[in-house]
Amino acid sequence: MWKQRQQRSPFKSTDTLIGHGGTLEGKVHCDTNLRVEGSFSGEIHCSGTVTVGEQGTVHASIVAEEIIIAGKVFGDITAERQILLLGNGQIYGNITSSALSIVEGGLLNGSVSMTEQPAQNKTGGLDIDTNRNKKNKRAPKQQGSREAG
């Protein structure tokens, strides 16, 4: 009986919402997605996606996996994966991310720092065999030494 309760705990709870008309100040740490439709001031640390809706206003630093801005954000934001600034979104602060998309009409007033994305095995880039290149570089030297000797 106790084991059944422990097995249910790995499931994530529902998303967190700061609704339209709501005002919240402080620090928010969440393991799920967060949506802000009201007003928030402070700090946000989120393991999921942070979405600032069209009516949302955030005066905070935001650190999250992914950030989507349709409202106003005043503060520095950092995303592990990507930042999406929608057409009516506004960011007043510095951003750091491995991917950035700004839809026409989006406003960004601050600096951008791009980080490298982790290498993925399924990308279609060139596969360069460094051992083959080393062998080709050594081959002329070996032939030249055989002819001289």
UniProtKB/TrEMBL annotation:
InterPro entries in the cross-refs: BacA/B (IPR007607)
Pfam family, one: Bactofilin
Keyword Oxidoreductase: no
Gene Ontology biological process terms from the UniProt entry: cell division
Keyword tags: Cell cycle, Cell division
Coiled-coil intervals, chain numbering: none
Ranges for region Disordered: 115-149
PANTHER family: HYPOTHETICAL CYTOSOLIC PROTEIN, POLYMER-FORMING CYTOSKELETAL PROTEIN
Family listed: Belongs to the bactofilin family.
Protein name: Cell division protein
Protein source organism: Paenibacillus wynnii
Native organism taxonomy: Bacteria, Bacillati, Bacillota, Bacilli, Bacillales
